[in-house]
Amino acid sequence: MSANRVPVTILTGFLGSGKTTMVNHILTSPDHKQRVAVIENEFGEVGIDDALVYNSQEEIFEMNNGCICCTVRGDLIKILHRLAPKKFDTVLVETTGMADPAPVAQTFFVDDFVKEHYRLDALLTVVDAKHVVQHLDEEKPDGVENEAIEQIAFADKVILNKTDLVNEQEKANVIQRIKAINSFANIIEAVMSRVPVAELLNINAFDINRILENEPDFLKDSDAEHQHDPRVSSVGMQVEGELSEDKVNKWLSKLLSEKGTDIFRSKGVLAIKGEDHKFVFQGVHMLMGFGSTAEGRGKPWGKDEKRINRIVFIGRNLDRKQLNEEFQKCVA
Ligand SMILES: Nc1nc2c(ncn2[C@@H]2O[C@H](COP(=O)(O)OP(=O)(O)OP(=O)(O)O)[C@@H](O)[C@H]2O)c(=O)[nH]1
Hints:
The protein is built from eleven helices and twelve strands. The protein has helices at residues 19-28, 49-52, 68-83, 101-110, 112-117, 132-136, 147-153, 168-181, 208-214, 245-259, 320-328, and strands spanning 6-13, 36-41, 60-63, 90-94, 118-128, 157-161, 186-189, 232-240, 263-271, 278-284, 287-292, 308-316. A seven-stranded parallel sheet has the order 3-2-4-1-5-6-7, sandwiched between helices. The longest helix is centred in the first third of the chain and has 16 residues, at 68-83. The relative contact order is 0.16. Keywords: Chaperone, Hydrolase, Nucleotide-binding. InterPro entries: CobW-likC_sf, CobW-like_C, CobW/HypB/UreG_nucleotide-bd, P-loop_NTPase, Zinc-reg_GTPase_activator.
């Protein structure tokens, strides 16, 4: 086994908890000089996160073929093979908000090449202080696992994010819930996922013995599929042309205020009439916000670039047809 195995950090956390925000924080933070390779996985047919990660010199590798936890044996291993000769200081794997972290972590123990070149440094779980409790409490059909619980159970470190959105009592309640699931993980509070990078990367926190106590079969190379909640799906849509800002705004505000309990996460990259900058829409349940490439993240529309608006909704009992019709109506 190589003495210089590259440390790998797995970043998990429920939809919208602040994982991409953390990737951006790490990539732009001046307090480290590490060359970081980022591997991104998205739950949805339309790639959006690439437009939301800061332009940087680091390399971003995307996996869009379904949920990372169901395709670990394939894509992730292939990317790790390709990355090995490039001598990155560290690798950051951002999983989808719906991923069960166990099979992702297993990748680093089952493939000989990966074992030889990489070591799992830590599994970090970002928790949305405002929305996590409703996901921990969610009733699931028989045999379906609760991803929000799994993600906390597996964490070596929990980043309790969005503490700006809760009061002291709510925060204390969330901390108690986290400790009841995982009493070992160190909990760090954060706003906008800002945590000193030295506390995130290369921290030697992954402890295989603790994992085996919880999950004795962890090292068995089984391909058993775990079950996702069949009611939860992602609807990715695209429409060509320029959109009316007013129509988009009204549509999304109404949609999220009425259906925000079931729509866990929404995001989009939009072309607004008369604007050269790309508009970025972000929603987590009923909270929504807009940004634009004018803020320095991503690139504006290219001169000859087709204006293709992309949006993705992830949630329970989504009506694809209706969402699509409403999206089409926003064209200016
Ligand atoms: N108020 C507040 N908003 C935050 C904080 N951290 C992130 N956000 C916002 O929450 C939204 C989701 O953040 P992301 O970083 O995209 O979340 P994610 O976990 O990558 O989301 P998925 O990839 O969809 O699972 C964005 O609009 C962020 O700006 C925070 O500490 N406080």
